[in-house]
Design a protein that fits this description.
The protein is 40% helix and 12% strand. The chain is of the alpha+beta class. The strands form three sheets. Strands 1-2 form a two-stranded antiparallel sheet. A two-stranded parallel sheet has the order 3-4. Strand 1 and strand 2 form a beta hairpin. The chain is globular and about 45 Å long.
Length: 202
């Protein structure tokens, strides 16, 4: 049922939002040039890698994320318009509408066994961590929320998350970590004692 809902809803949204997608693509092309889309390998269900597609928000070239992130890019991120091309990933089966957000491939060896359970389900365009604080949360908090979703997932919870996503998008809160242009990189949870990774450490 979840997959049928994902495909039907994502296809409908792609059709309904096609004029908006065209406008955003044109703005990115005029302001940032080519390419219009940002493509990056991300781990999906069971760690299988796929290519995530988003609208580009940064200038190419050297510099920090804060230096390369443009005014248009900040707007697209604040409104989550940069995420709209991910609907095509949903139709292809790489993503679900709701699930833990797909993070970077290089993070895979850094997760604790418990944190790695976030890959037991298909990743999502939005998720429990995104409607519970987004990038204002610490990495440990976000990953714990992802695992909570894995253990409590249901169609009813997905509908609840989708409804809360609308408010989160319009509120524009938690787009960046405090004091940063984006989210600081995940560096893993420190290992203590017999090799078990400690939870709650910075």
């Amino acid at each position: 049922m979840k997959r049928i809902f994902d495909v039907a809803a994502a296809t409908l949204l792609l059709v309904v939002l096609s004029p908006l997608l065209a406008v955003v693509a044109l703005l990115v092309r005029v302001r940032l040039g080519s390419p219009v889309f940002f493509r990056q390998p991300r781990p999906g269900r069971d760690g299988r890698v796929f290519t995530l597609v988003k609208f580009r928000t940064m200038r190419e070239g050297a510099g920090t994320d804060a230096e390369r992130l443009t005014k248009l890019g900040r707007f697209l991120r604040r409104t989550s318009l940069d995420e709209l091309p991910e609907l095509a990933n949903v139709v292809r089966g790489d993503l679900s509408l709701v699930g833990p957000r797909p993070l970077l491939v290089e993070y895979l060896p850094l997760y604790s066994p418990e944190q790695a359970r976030r890959h037991e389900v298909r990743p999502g365009v939005t998720g429990w961590a995104q409607v519970s604080g987004r990038n204002a949360l610490t990495w440990d908090e976000k990953l714990a929320l992802d695992v909570w979703y894995v253990d409590h997932r249901s169609f009813r919870l997905d509908l609840r998350i989708l409804a809360r996503t609308v408010g989160a998008v319009f509120g524009g809160k938690g787009v960046a970590a405090p004091g940063a242009a984006t989210m600081e990189p995940f560096r893993g949870t420190p290992v203590v004692g017999d090799g078990v990774r400690a939870q709650g450490d910075p």
